[in-house]
Each structure stands twice: as structure tokens, then as C-alpha cells.
């Protein structure tokens, strides 16, 4: 299982955010989230140039068992989409922090990052079972 | 947990963790959704074998001089057609023809039957049975005393045969043997039945012996790839084989005829039974809606409760759906108005406010050996 790296930020909806420089970030779901979902079989991702808003739906992810909403951790414009997930959604199970990323966003309000959790805070959040 | 409800557990609960189970709330029961992965477990059952704990299922013993006629009054199939050591799939209906439950009737003796019912319906069913008791019958709910393990898959017979001297090849489908000794565990009822679309056995035994049997089976099946399986795989397996699930394909509002299990409805049997008149009317007037298989050809997975359309007209609902692990297609079972049920009929499924193209296809989606 891949481990989270300390430079990631997390939302309480189990998305991670990697800062790529400037206002650009990459977004995916945490290892905990992929493990809870089980075998992922379908992703409906945001599309290029879509606007996303913090804490609002940016797509859907489906395991064998169920469909779950994906919530954007930040607001902005979609500038990158991981198209390989269309044919290989299981990549999210296998490499949630690397090849299984979802989208890249040019943030319109970078201050929203301050509301996100650090890795330690996220770990604590998950271990509280408050999910 | 936000609710005060105490979740029920099977006698095997403490064993789950040892095998890596992910445990979730299934209608009031704390049960394993998976041990390794739903896809791996599904594949194991299709190609080798899987072991399921389904002890949450309910068992009701019906005994007495009038047991046969009483059961025949409760259920839609004809229980007079089975012999001792034979099981029959059937439904229990309300007077409107809606389904109270689907169940298996095991004929243990001439005046002794075991009815195997769905976990979520145990209280409701037992109350219904007692309400409608007639003649000399004794109705006893043994659900907490009996455990049930299912070993399913093409290698199930070979694995189980290592543990018993009873010749399993002599037990045909929907038949069973009583008081079987399985590697020192006595009094096991071994039934060639299941809910996966594969060959296999269901093993009924005293709850306190369940853990020992679970361990012995897994040990005996190691070399053959026997895997502990959760209810997630059980659901995808039964779905592909078009085996209906109470609460989805069958409800108090859906008749067994509509759900496509008419083979278990004998409206021409002599005895009266609850729902008979309503079911005869459905048959003679023709069904207004039917259960069909659908394949979503656009992008999306059909799920329970999604609406089904033909153009602008809403014509029904998805009862179950998933991405089929064996067929690698997005498939669903849908209860739709009868005029849209022919194979090849184009439909749309509403997925997150978008109408996605689908088509009626043949079900079962999967048949053993295909």
C-alpha cells in the first residue's frame, strides 16, 4: 500500500491535495478512502475547464458495491484530468497517491488550503472513526 | 454509530477479523462485506470455491400432522411435490399477491419441515406464520440456534468430500442429506443448494459448531484455492445468475410473477393458498410489469432505485445493478412496464439526473460453465 507523503493536505471528505506550484494543485482520494470503498470500477471525473467549488461535488466514484460523491477540496478551474482512469479505475486502489490521481485544478481562492488538514491531523481524524 | 440499535452477530463474528474481514451493517446485522476484495472473491467462486457465513438467515421448524397442508397454504409452490430430503424454492405472499418473503422449504420428514427465510424478515415471517397457523402444527423459530455455511464453486464438492464419508455425488440439486458427519462434526444438514449460480453446498448445523466447521473447510480447501467470501461477492454472484434478492427484486408490492420466479408459483395446485386469487388474476390478465435484464451501453452503472425511461416516459426502476465482475459490463435488473421487456428494446436509465442509454438483454447474465 502506498503511504501518504507529508506534503499533502487532506479534506474531511478524504480527498488529498498536492501543491504543484503557483495556484495549481493535484487532487486524489486517500488510501483510507480507497480501502473503505473496495474495488473501484468506475470514475466519473470532472472535465477540462469545468469549474469546481470547495466542498461541492466534482464527480462520482463507484465501487462494486456502491456509488459515492467526490467533493472538491478547493475552488477553481479544472486544468488536468487523469484520463487513464476511464479504462483502469482500479489504479486508484493500487496507487491512490500516484497514478490514481483524479484532476488538477487552477485554484481561484488559494486561501481555502488553510481549511484543509495536515497529514497528522487527517490521520487523527480517520482514527477517530468520525466518518 | 449514531443509532442506539445493537447490531446482531452470527456465531462466526469473532472469526471474521482473523481473516481480514471488513464488517458493515447489513440491515441490522454486523456482517462481512468482504475478506480480501469483492472481485477476487467473486472470481474464486466462479473458478474454484468460496466459503460464506450466512448464519444470519432464519430457520423455522414446522412440525405436526397438518404441517404439509399448512405450509402449502402459506406458500406459492406445491410442497406436496417434494419428497423427504428434498428442498423447494418458494414464496410466501400476502392476499394481494405481493411477496412477504422468498424461502426454501426442506422436507425433513413426513410431518417435519424446515423453512429457511431471509434474515431481515425473521420476525415478520414468524408472526405471519403463527397468525395463519391451522390444524395440528407446531412452529418453532430456531434462527439463533442454527448456523449456516455455504461452500460454493466448481471445486466445492471435491473440498467437502475430503471431510465426509457421505457420497456427495449422490446428492442432486435441491436435495440434501441429514445427520451428516463432517470430519467429526456431527448432525450437519448438507444441501446441494446455493445463491451464487455455481454448484455447491449449504451446511446447516448447531451454532456452537460453526467455527470448527469453518476452520476445517478452509483448511481442507487451501490447496484448491478456497477463499472466505463476504456478502459483497454473494450479491454480485447472485445478481449475475439472476437470483432475486428480497427487498430489491421482491417486496410486499412486487409479486413473484412480476419478479420472474413464476416457476415457484403453482396457481393450479389444488389447495388454497394466500395470494392465490390475486396471482391467478395477474396471470390471466397478463402482467403489467416484469423484471428484465438491462445493459447500460452509455457511461454509468445502474443502481437500486434508479429510474428507467423510454424517451420521456418513466417506465420503471432498477432493482439491482453493478458492474458485473464476470462479464465486465454495467448490468442491471429492472422492473419495467410489460411493453418494454423484449430483448433489444432501447431504454434509458437516469443516473445523477442524466438519461444514459441502455438496452434490454437476456437474463440470467451468467450461466454456470459459460
Quick recap:
The complex is a heterodimer of chains A (131) and B (370). Chain A has 131 residues and is an alpha+beta fold.
Key descriptive features of the protein:
heterodimer; A: 131 residues; alpha+beta; OB fold (Dihydrolipoamide Acetyltransferase, E2P); six-stranded antiparallel sheet; three-stranded antiparallel sheet; 3 helices; 9 strands; 15% helix; 34% strand; B: 370 residues; Gyrase A, domain 2; Alpha-Beta Plaits; Elongation Factor Tu (Ef-tu), domain 3; 3 domains; six-stranded mixed sheet; six-stranded antiparallel barrel; 8 helices; 19 strands; globular; transaminase activity (chain B); aminotransferase (chain B); GcvT/YgfZ_C (chain B)
Instruction: Please tally the β strands of chain A and state the result.
Output: 9
What does the overall shape of chain B look like? globular
CATH architecture of chain A: Beta Barrel
Summarize the amount of helix of chain B as a percent range.
10-25%
Tell me the strand order in the biggest sheet of chain A.
1-2-3-9-8-5
Just give the CATH class of chain A. Mainly Beta
Oligomeric assembly:
heterodimer
One letter per element, helices H and strands E, the order of chain A comes to: EEEHEEEEEHEH
What integer value in Å does the Rg of chain A equal?
Answer: 13 Å
Q: How big a fraction of the residues of chain A is strand?
A: 25-35%
| Total domains of chain B | 3
Largest interface: A-B, 12 and 18 residues
Q: What class, by secondary structure content of chain A?
A: alpha+beta
SSE succession of chain B: HEEHEEHEEEHEEHEEEHEHHEEEEEE
**From the helix content, strand content and strand pairing of chain B, which structural class follows?**
alpha+beta
**Named CATH topology of the largest domain in chain B:** Gyrase A, domain 2
Q: Major sheet of chain B: size, sense and barrel closure? A: 6 strands, mixed
Summarize the biggest pleated sheet of chain A. 6 strands, antiparallel
CATH topology heading of chain A: OB fold (Dihydrolipoamide Acetyltransferase, E2P)
CATH superfamily of the largest domain in chain B: Probable tRNA modification gtpase trme, domain 1
Amino acid at each position: 500500500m502506498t503511504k501518504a507523503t507529508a506534503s499533502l493536505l487532506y479534506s474531511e471528505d478524504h480527498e488529498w491535495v498536492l501543491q504543484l506550484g503557483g495556484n495549481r494543485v493535484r487532487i486524489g482520494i486517500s488510501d483510507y478512502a480507497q480501502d473503505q470503498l473496495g474495488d473501484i470500477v468506475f470514475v466519473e471525473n470532472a472535465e477540462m475547464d469545468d469549474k469546481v467549488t470547495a466542498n461541492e461535488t466534482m464527480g462520482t466514484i463507484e465501487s462494486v458495491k456502491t456509488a459515492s460523491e467526490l467533493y472538491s477540496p478547493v475552488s477553481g478551474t479544472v486544468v488536468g484530468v487523469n484520463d487513464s482512469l476511464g479504462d483502469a479505475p482500479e489504479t486508484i486502489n493500487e496507487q491512490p497517491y500516484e497514478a490514481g490521481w483524479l484532476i488538477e485544478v487552477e485554484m481561484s481562492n488559494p486561501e481555502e488550503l488553510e481549511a484543509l488538514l495536515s497529514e497528522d491531523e487527517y490521520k487523527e481524524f480517520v482514527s477517530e472513526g468520525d466518518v | 454509530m449514531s443509532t442506539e440499535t445493537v447490531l446482531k452477530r452470527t456465531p462466526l463474528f469473532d472469526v471474521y477479523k482473523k481473516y481480514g474481514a471488513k464488517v458493515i451493517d447489513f440491515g441490522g446485522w454486523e456482517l462481512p462485506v468482504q475478506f480480501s476484495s469483492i472481485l477476487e472473491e467473486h472470481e474464486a467462486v466462479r473458478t474454484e470455491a468460496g466459503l460464506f457465513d450466512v448464519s444470519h438467515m432464519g430457520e423455522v421448524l414446522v412440525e405436526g400432522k397438518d404441517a404439509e397442508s399448512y405450509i402449502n397454504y402459506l406458500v406459492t409452490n406445491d410442497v406436496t411435490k417434494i419428497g423427504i430430503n428434498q428442498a423447494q424454492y418458494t414464496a410466501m405472499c400476502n392476499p394481494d399477491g405481493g411477496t412477504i418473503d422468498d424461502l426454501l422449504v426442506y422436507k425433513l420428514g413426513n410431518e417435519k419441515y424446515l423453512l429457511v427465510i431471509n434474515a431481515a424478515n425473521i420476525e415478520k415471517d414468524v408472526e405471519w406464520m403463527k397468525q395463519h397457523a391451522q390444524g395440528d402444527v407446531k412452529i418453532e423459530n430456531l434462527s439463533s440456534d442454527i448456523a449456516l455455511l455455504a461452500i460454493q464453486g466448481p471445486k466445492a464438492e471435491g473440498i467437502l468430500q475430503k471431510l465426509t464419508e457421505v457420497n456427495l455425488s449422490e446428492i442432486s440439486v435441491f436435495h440434501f442429506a441429514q445427520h451428516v458427519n463432517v470430519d467429526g462434526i456431527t448432525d450437519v444438514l448438507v444441501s446441494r443448494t446455493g445463491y451464487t449460480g455455481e454448484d455447491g453446498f449449504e451446511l446447516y448445523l448447531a451454532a456452537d459448531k460453526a467455527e470448527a466447521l469453518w476452520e476445517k473447510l478452509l483448511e481442507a480447501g487451501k490447496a484448491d484455492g478456497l477463499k472466505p467470501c463476504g456478502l459483497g461477492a454473494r450479491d454480485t454472484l447472485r445478481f449475475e445468475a439472476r437470483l432475486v434478492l428480497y427487498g430489491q427484486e421482491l417486496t410486499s408490492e412486487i409479486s413473484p410473477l412480476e419478479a420472474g420466479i413464476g416457476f415457484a408459483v403453482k396457481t393450479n395446485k389444488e389447495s388454497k393458498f394466500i395470494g392465490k386469487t390475486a396471482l391467478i388474476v395477474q396471470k390471466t390478465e397478463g402482467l403489467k410489469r416484469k423484471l428484465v435484464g438491462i445493459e447500460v451501453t452509455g457511461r454509468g452503472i445502474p443502481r437500486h432505485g434508479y429510474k428507467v425511461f423510454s424517451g420521456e416516459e418513466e417506465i420503471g426502476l432498477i432493482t439491482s445493478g453493478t458492474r458485473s465482475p464476470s462479464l465486465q459490463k454495467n448490468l442491471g435488473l429492472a422492473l419495467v412496464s410489460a411493453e418494454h421487456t423484449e430483448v433489444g428494446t432501447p431504454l434509458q436509465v437516469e443516473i445523477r439526473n442524466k438519461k444514459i442509454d441502455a438496452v434490454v438483454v437476456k437474463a440470467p447474465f451468467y450461466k454456470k460453465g459459460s
